[in-house]
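User: If you would, consider this record:
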Amino acid sequence: MEPLASKIRPKTLAEFIGQEHLVGPGKPIREAIEKRHLFSFVLWGPPGVGKTTLAKIYAKALGADFVELSAVSAGKEDVREVVQGQAGLRPTVLFLDEIHRFNKAQQDFLLPFVETGRITLIGATTENPSFEVISPLLSRCRVFVLNELSPDELGKIIDRTGIAMDKAAREWVINFANGDARQLLGLLEATEALYKEVNVQTLTDALQSKYIRYDKKGEGHYDTISAFIKSMRASQPDAALYYLARMVEAGEDPKFIARRMVIFASEDVGLADPMALEIANNVFRAVEVIGLPECAINLAHGVCYLAGAPKTKRSYEAYFRALDDVKKYGNLPIPLQIRNPVTKLMKDMGYGKDYERYPKNDLLPEKLKGKKYLI
């Protein structure tokens, strides 16, 4: 039987729900389709917001062949087969789901085919492509950010399923989905299959059943990483190690875990132990070089150190105090004595003059003299 998500998948932009900033009138993806402009791009956003669907609509509208690969299981040979399989009569769109799972060598292999136009690449990722996609490849792609679906948009998707339910069930399942259409449709499909009637009680029962699998790209993913961070923040290495093991066992990308440890080292440990950032960075590097399964040991090493380290948010909070003033006052004039005197005219105007004689608290713009951010 065809899955519900596949059965109601939109075929055209007119049927597509959400992402109006990309597909609304005059917006970039609609413009590209209407002007028949074929180019490579990356779709970055949370799970279940239409990345795959939008890629399929785009390829079909432009008359291109659509080939879908997952970077979790695909490699260089799969890309080579796509390129060699081109008939040459129609352009080929390669949709690479979870592009962040391709390593540098695999992305390097993909680059010349994108560069020469042999294939048009559409990458999809839940991770920041600036961290996960090599610069030469990223420079040849536009990046489009997709948003979580709103409650109204999820309601429209429910209407499309034709599944009857009362108002309470509708609100419950929309809140559960939390912007993710995949979560929404998966639970509705399982509930209807198990109980026929969809209400709050059957939805709750279905959620506990074996038919709803843990989705490491969905709610379980975010709940577990949250528990992991909070355990380190509470200086509880045992709990942090448990959640680390759960993520590794579930197939979580170890770089995703290591990157958040680097953030934690500055956000939560900060100036209380400056070595924490160095250790977290070394763990990240070890993860890149070694890979699974052995890099789990490196992750555990870093987790134990970060959980046991003293904590302070002084530098983190200081930055956001400074950011508040930037947003409040805009680009205030920089004092002349710390401007760069590149030309003679600038020197004559006082740029850089007597810099060494000024106390440090005078280096802020005039309106912020004496302001303290690091407290």
Q: What stands out?
A: Strands lie at 41-44, 65-70, 92-97, 120-125, 142-145. The mean pLDDT is 88. The longest helix spans residues 254-269.
